[in-house]
Amino acid sequence: MSSARLRKGIYMRTAPQKRASDPNSDEDNDNSPRKKSRVSEVWLPDTKLAFQLLLAANFTSALFCHVTDCDETYNYWEPLYHMMYGEGFQTWEYSPAYGIRSWAYICLHYIFTLVHMGLLNANHVFVFYFIRMVLSLACTTCQLVFFEGVVLRFGNNVGRILLCFLILSPGSYISSTSFLPSSFCMYMTCLMMGCWLQGKLNLAILAVAAAAIIGWPFSAALGVPLAVDVLIRRGQYMFFIKWGGIALATMLLPCMIIDSLFYGKLVIAPLNILLYNVFTAHGPDIYGTEPWSYYFLNGFLNFNFVFVLAVLSAFIISICEMSVRYKYKGYRSPSLLYVFTLSPMYLWMCIFFLQPHKEERFLFPIYPLICLSGAVTLATIQKAWCVYKMNRFFKESWLAGVFIAVFSTLALSRSMALYFSYRAPMEIYQPLHRMAAQNDITTAPVRICYGKEWHRFPSSFILPNGFQPRFIESDFRGQLPARFTAKGFNGTKAVPGHFNDANKEEKDRYVDVSTCHFLVDFDSPHPTHYEQRFGEQTEKWKVFFEMDFLDSYESKSRLHRAFYIPFHFWERNTFRKYQLLLSKTNKLKRRKKKN
User: Fold this and answer.
1) Sheet containing 446-450: which strands, arranged edge to edge?
2) How far is the CA of 430 from the CAs of 131, 433, 547, in angstroms?
């Protein structure tokens, strides 16, 4: 089979059409009442090539993208580390007193670690990247189902544009391999839409249920249009009840059993999340609020002009379809398809754009829908472009080509800026592994400390065996995670008294800086009483390794900070050192060499 093939694809649908291969077709008959729209051969990668392209992009994310959210570290990587090695950090959400995080979601990823039969367990870094590789494979599979569904319903042109957006967008680069429920919901969004568009309604319902039960309960909102289609448009009540019941029996019940086993009491984690976020007096707003423009700026950075098309898709598509209908009186617009395609994204935006507490990961579930809405909008513009014969001056394929070229340039520029600016917290630990590999350290455990850089700690998986992360006091006055009090179920069932759900500081998290063997710090030129410039304290600390890291406060140009522009990126931005410091006062003991 060739790696690519030609399929019948439709740029525009202006009247009842016949296939291009139909010898009775009168598309080119000038005596017909009106010319039928043309069916063009649109090149589209076949399933195998599309899978390879998506997998390559997601593997790139797994290998090069940094951990972008401290919630990913402390609420997901650290509990998994505890399951595997009996150590790690615990957040208040995992205390049985609150129980708002699901251990079932962690167990799902723990299963991945069984695939390699324990061969990688000796090196935690290998496990970390192995799990990321598995996530990239899972994401690719779901994206492929999504892609096939879109091609089936919208044709090759939309499918080809969608594939470009999925592969190149910085949003996909960030979210595709993140160990977060919102990324899992993004996978399920791809499955839901792909199965829905292919007519596999039972699988679409199960995908929505998996996202809401295993991942994030708020993602059930994305299934509302699907429920409307099944219940109201199709009237399949018993079908919906049947598969909803199957989802509850195969997903909710096992999750309840797993969570109750880990917490030592009956826990329904999805319900606890809803109760905390909706019905508590403070809710999530205590963790910070953002202005209304936050998601618009974030969306543009992650999808640039595709996000603009997606936000305006309802307006642009309506105008284009009305213009086509005005030109061709017999034209029937696929309005229902547009409504069901666009409504999940708009529904999600209406819910989350209005919330004071905003985070980038909250939009992960609709990232595929942003790409789809942008692709459909661009293809609809091409349709109107052809209807009004503008393609005589500038071909509709060039119109899409120019847009994709601009999008690709900005997207790659953004992804490169993210890598060059923020890679240090992922790569600075390499010398530690070389040191540990020499087997000359006898101090156990080795204490590596974090002050103001606590939120950039990737996870304990990144550290060599025998290294334990600890916190020193900084200017942050919220609640930091604590160490699990015991190994295994004894640690997950214990109810520590040092947690609260109001983000109040707990002083027992800190250790004295003099007890640290290593210290990770960003050499900021704005020291405070707690956040000192430890790298300049040469009598106490030695720079063991350092890398460049973007100083976003001192880099005044938003354009050059957000996008990688050759020859200007390093000149227009301010970079300072992200440092791994070695203590001179609390020295490591070294093993004596044998004669």
Assistant:
1) 467-471, 446-450, 518-522, 575-583, 541-550
2) 19, 5, 11
Q: Are 452 and 473 in contact (CB under 8 A)?
A: no
- Overall average pLDDT of the 280-285 stretch: 83
**pLDDT the model gives residue 532:** 94
Question: Residue 139's closest CA among 102, 167, 100, 110?
Answer: 167
CB-CB neighbours of 535 under 10 Å: 19
Q: Which helix (H) or strand (E) holds 576?
A: strand 575-583
The span from the CA of 132 to the CA of 179, in Å, is 8
Residue 333's CB: how many other CB atoms inside 10 A? 16
Contact between 47 and 1 under an 8 Å Cβ cutoff? The reply is: no
Q: What is the pTM of this model?
A: 0.91
For residue 44, how many C-alpha atoms fall within 13 Å in the half-sphere facing its CB? 26
Burial of 434 (0-12, 13-18, 19+ CB in 10 A): exposed
Burial bucket for residue 595 (CB in 10 Å: 0-12, 13-18, 19+): exposed
Confidence of residue 48 (pLDDT cuts 50, 70, 90): very high
Helix ranges (DSSP H) in 423-468: 424-427, 430-437
- Are residues 486 and 511 in contact, defined by beta-carbon separation less than 8 angstroms? no
Preceding amide of 525 cis, omega within 30: no
End-to-end alpha-carbon separation of the chain, Å?
64
What single-letter amino acid sits at 144? L
Residue 75 has which token pair? 């609420």
Distance set, CA 94 to CA 87, 324, 428, 450 (Å)? 14, 56, 29, 22
